[in-house]
Amino acid sequence: MSKQKLLVATNNKDKFKEITAILDSLNVEFVSLGDIELPEEDGKTIEENAIKKSEFGFEIKKMLTIADDTGLEVDALNGAPGVYSSRFAGENVSYEDNRKKLLNELAGKKLEERKAKFRCIIAVSGLEKGTKTFEGSVDGYITEDERGNSGFGYDAIFFVPEIGKTMAEMSPEEKNKISHRGRAIVKAKKYLENYLN
To answer: Domain residues of the chain, as ranges?
Structure first.
């Protein structure tokens, strides 16, 4: 019997790798978007963007689809960069450009002013009841400098007190256990296990 296909609707290779690693025990065949570009992320919330990507993938490929959107919310910046996390320093910028801009914005601020939260919404489309969403979050602080060589995005400047490391100092397995995306995907995975059985 052939495995059910699960489309991971992202153009980000790092996210694809992280999502499929956490969902690895599901009895599915992972499919990527290939050269298909996702529509513009113009939602006002990360929920809207996750749903838009998931439903777009389902419409295009006509298969069960999972997508995510993530926001880094910094207290001292009134929740910014939030929905604009991936393009905080502008369009088509590098992870490093975004980190540098954030560090500059927080320059001179004390630890208690550097509180931040990573939020992730996972959306799953192609289910009988339409699109379902699952949320995960992790609290931390923005460091004053980059630490660690693992991960991607803001991982090198996001310190998680309960672990005592930045996300970029953690192994992929360690990060996936406590990260915002890991927590959201685990919730989605439990739902999908019941759905696929």
So the answer is: 4-196
Q: Could you write out the DSSP letters of every residue in 109-168? A: --GGGGEEEEEEEEEEEEETTEEEEEEEEEEEEE-SS---SSS-TTGGGEEETTTTEEGG
**Tokens at 57, concatenated:** 């993938």
What SS3 state is found at 10?
coil
pTM: 0.91
Tokens 């996001």 belong to 158
Q: What is the mean pLDDT of the chain?
A: 93
Name every residue whose Cβ is closer than 8 Å to that of residue 166 and which is 6 or more positions away in sequence: 143, 146, 147, 148, 155, 156, 157, 158, 159, 160
Q: Could you tell me what percent of the chain has a pLDDT over 70?
A: 99
- Enumerate the active-site residues: 69
Query: How many other CB atoms are there within 10 angstroms of residue 16's CB atom?
Result: 16
Count the helices and strands in the chain (H runs, E runs): 5, 8
pLDDT of res. 1:
56
Q: Residue 180, class by beta-carbon neighbours within 10 Å (0-12 exposed, 13-18 middle, 19+ buried)?
A: buried
Q: Using an 8 Å Cβ cutoff, are 30 and 196 in contact?
A: no
Q: What CATH number labels 4-196?
A: 3.90.950.10
8 Å CB contact between 159 and 144: no
